[in-house]
Design brief:
mainly alpha
Length: 430
């Protein structure tokens, strides 16, 4: 009845989802500045692409394991409270990391503290995405995911650009403090979300467990697609730093401008995604991977700064297409009672893909050189996604059949004034 009252009072729909989107934008702004800062910090201290990869792997591998194990907490604890606590924890850890970096602490210690932050950030992400699936109505899920993708794109562009500007005058640890501040603000924003339930698992029927296990065999291609996109990002962590230094001759600050261009490109993906809702997840996600990966090969032609920015804008479109289509599919397909666990697993797979890309890139650079590495980096993700395409098509067919069966009943319920803005989980429970 709490959620029905919330719907009746007009606080349903995308209303609560706006707080989720704001949280993604605010924390993302600081996180992307931090991503630039820690890569630049490692490169300036060691002048080695291998060390950039080592710190990336070192902070992601522990987070990968811990976030996989902690994913079940999202389904057992109040999701809003968990997200707020994780945000606050990230803010504290970032402050400690800034102090350590300013004191030139050993790189292994900096990597260890960064791993703690990565774990908490993944836990926060799982809780927020699960919370969004509960408070946003079914008809608004696709729009909410696209807007979340746009928010992340804005954060990528603004955070990376701000990092590049700050690095002209300030040291990389200043970006760690910026990240701490944005996590604190994100905690305040998430705390304002009025969720109709405090423990999702207690309100979901247990009889659905068998169907949930069978559903898990269907939505795994969406998780794998997110991992493929993360693999490309892992390659970027190393390759863009090398490109900015060797090709663009813009120093390590050029790394931030390349990321900012990708973020700006992500905004372009919002317009076609909102206008064309007939595209299937399989087509949209696969096209996104193609657009994200293939243009990497253009850097082998040494396009210069303006050409590189153009390449990154195109790649940013692909990145948002992949993430928004996969997240929308997961939010629709995954039962609410296990969504925290599933999104936790997805976050872990994202870390695994990023780690793999960060390990592969310096190895290929050492063995084959930059140009050959770029060609392989453009082709390998495409081959992975082509292998996933038939499974994504199967997911689309299953989802279409399920929605066709439920739509008449859901439509009837939504015509009632009391349930017009009720969330997906409420209507499915009824």
């Amino acid at each position: 009845m709490v959620e029905v009252r919330r719907a009746r009072n007009g606080r349903g729909g995308l209303g609560q989802g706006r707080h989720v989107i704001a949280s993604i934008a605010i924390s993302g702004f600081g996180t992307w500045g931090y991503n630039v800062g820690i890569a630049v910090y490692a490169y300036e201290r060691t002048h080695s692409a291998a060390w950039v990869a080592a710190i990336t792997v070192g902070r992601y591998v522990p987070a990968l394991v811990l976030s996989w194990l902690a994913g079940r907490l999202v389904d057992r604890l109040p999701r809003r409270s968990l997200a707020v606590a994780a945000d606050a924890g990230c803010a504290a850890v970032m402050a400690v990391l800034a102090l350590l970096a300013s004191a030139d602490a050993p790189l292994w210690l900096i990597t260890l503290v960064a791993a703690i932050s990565s774990t908490l950030a993944r836990l926060q992400g799982s809780a927020v995405l699960s919370l969004a699936a509960d408070v946003v109505v079914e008809s608004q899920l696709a729009r909410a995911s696209v807007l979340a993708g746009a928010a992340e794109a804005v954060a990528t562009a603004a955070g990376s650009a701000a990092a590049s500007v700050m690095l002209i005058r300030y040291t990389p640890p200043s970006l760690f403090l910026l990240n701490a501040a944005t996590f604190a603000v994100s905690a305040l924003v998430v705390a304002r979300i009025k969720s109709g339930r405090t423990r999702t698992s207690s309100t979901r029927p247990t009889a659905a467990s068998g169907s949930e296990r069978s559903a898990g065999a269907v939505f795994w291609p969406l998780q794998a697609t997110r991992a493929v996109a993360a693999f490309v990002y892992g390659l970027d962590v190393v390759l863009l730093a090398v490109i900015a230094s060797r090709q663009l001759h813009s120093g390590t600050s050029g790394y931030g401008w390349l990321l900012a261009a990708a973020g700006a490109g992500g905004l372009i993906a919002v317009v076609p995604s909102r206008r064309d809702r007939g595209r299937t997840t399989a087509k949209l996600a696969t096209f996104g991977v193609l657009l994200y990966a293939v243009p990497l090969a253009a850097f082998a032609l040494d396009p210069g700064l303006f050409g590189g920015v153009g390449v990154q804008i195109a790649r940013g479109v692909g990145s948002v297409l992949v993430s928004s289509s996969a997240i929308t599919g997961l939010q629709r397909a995954v039962p609410s009672r296990i969504s925290g666990q599933v999104f936790g697993q997805t976050q872990s797979l994202v870390l695994a893909g990023t780690t793999l890309g960060a390990v592969v890139a310096p190895s290929l650079l050492s063995a084959l050189g930059l140009d050959s590495t770029l060609l392989i980096a453009a082709a390998a993700p495409v081959a992975m996604q082509v292998a996933l395409f038939p499974f994504l098509v199967r997911f689309d067919h299953r989802e279409a059949g399920l929605l066709a069966a439920l739509e008449p009943r859901v439509t009837t319920l939504r015509e009632l004034d009391l349930l017009h803005d009720a969330s997906r989980s409420t209507l499915y429970e009824i």
